[in-house]
Amino acid sequence: NSINEMRRSLMGELEWRQDCTALYVSIGTGTDLNHLPADIDPAALDLTGADLSLGMLARCRDVWQKKAAGLDLVHCNAENLPFADNMFDVVFHVGGINFFSDKQKAINEMLRVAKPGSKIMIADETSDFIERQYKKSGFTRRYFADTHFDLGEIENSIPADVGGRRTRLLWDNRFYCITFRKPC
Fold this sequence. Notes:
By secondary structure, the protein is of the alpha/beta class. 27% of the residues lie in helices and 23% in strands. The radius of gyration is 16 Å and the shape is globular.
């Protein structure tokens, strides 16, 4: 099970259409966009990427400006998205929510900007992976030393009125993927 297969699986969870509006919260360098379903052309999407890191947004722009002409990059915090209510057909987040200061506020913001009935996806590393990988590596040990992550905290931050909530473990239990629908 390679990381690319996992990324393809994550992107396959979403309901892409060629003409959809999509928001990628914490886009980073945009790597997951390489794994859109084969019938979706990133250049034809109305895609917005949001991230707190100006450096990541700059790297994303360098990589994607030719491949995805309709990609708008926005510097913002996931807990305070600068978009109108009910704006996006697809809303997703891959990597980072484990470390958000207010997970519930970020999830509420993703719900707010999604159109009614839209499927939302949140995915990140599992606590086992953080323990086995990041806390043991000399490169990342200091950064993750005081990290305590609880998947239940994220699941409990999702409002009870969402539809079709599902949690799956992927990539040999190293990543979780939670999907749910905004109520209509």
